[in-house]
Design brief:
Pfam family, one: HHH_3
InterPro entries: Endo/Exo/Phosphatase_dom_1 (IPR051675), RuvA_2-like (IPR010994)
Oligomer: single chain
Keywords: Membrane, Transmembrane, Transmembrane helix
Number of domains: 4
Strand order of the largest sheet: 1-2
Order of helices and strands: HHHHHHHEHHHEEHHHE
Largest sheet: 2 strands, parallel
Helix content: 40-55%
Number of helices: 13
Shape: rod-shaped
Structural class: mainly alpha
Distance between the termini: 111 Å
Number of strands: 4
Protein name: Helix-hairpin-helix domain-containing protein
Amino acid sequence: MRKRKLIGPTDAQTKGMVLFLSITVFYAVLVGDFGSGRSHFQFSESDSLKLDSLAKALDAKFKEDSIRKASEKQPELFAFNPNTADKSTFEKLGIKPAVAGRIVKYREKGGVFRKKEDFAKIYGLSRERFELLKEHIRLPKIASERFPKKRFERKRQERKPKVLEAFDINTADSLQLIAVRGIGPYTARRIMSLRERLGGFVSEDQLSEVYKIMPEGLDNLRKVCFVDTAFSPWKLDINQASFKDVLRHPYFDYEQVKVVFNLKRRAGKLSSFDQLKRHVPDLRPELADYLDFSVSQEPSELQ
């Protein structure tokens, strides 16, 4: 394949320059002065005719090149849409055939020109040509609608509100919990974990104690859950439980458990929550529902 020159003189111009230089050198050899005295050569009439003939041939060649360039078809400038124009349209605009084909292939692979500057990124399109065509580029709104950006964006689906049936918070599974708006899998797991460590919920208000539960989720959960009036939570046998068992309960802290066991060593058996509350500071009232004192057979020495 013959390579086209992108810059520099054409072949005709090169030949003309070589011919011109040859005549100049020939003339210098005949009549020039190279530092060794004047030339002893004299032009004959035939030599003069040859020189005149060469000069006329060179002049005719230059005129021929000028006429050919003037007759060449000049690029047209008109409004065009780079997203819809075909290859021949690009060529009429003065874009080289190879570059025009590259534009078409870019579009065939899904490429879209969303703004004028995108057209300047086409490989092989000179900056001068782009600046000449820039004012003629048309990107109507319809093009943006045909190739919307949103097809590359993840569609965000709005969560439709669900009408849920009320359920017992002490028997609910994770699927029932996550169906509530604002309750995710992690929150559902924490609700069930707290329920297990407590021995069950005795009030819906205890749901606020769930670690990191969101206000929206808490409000929505309270609207659809309930505690059965017949429900009785699992109770911790305070007189038989080990130190670790008592400490595992969410409503006891370490210092309180120490006081409880010191009290048990001194009193033997604990008989009531009131007795425990008098000796252990800051006990939560809800603990009364979770402690079992029935093992005690005899009243303790400390009342």
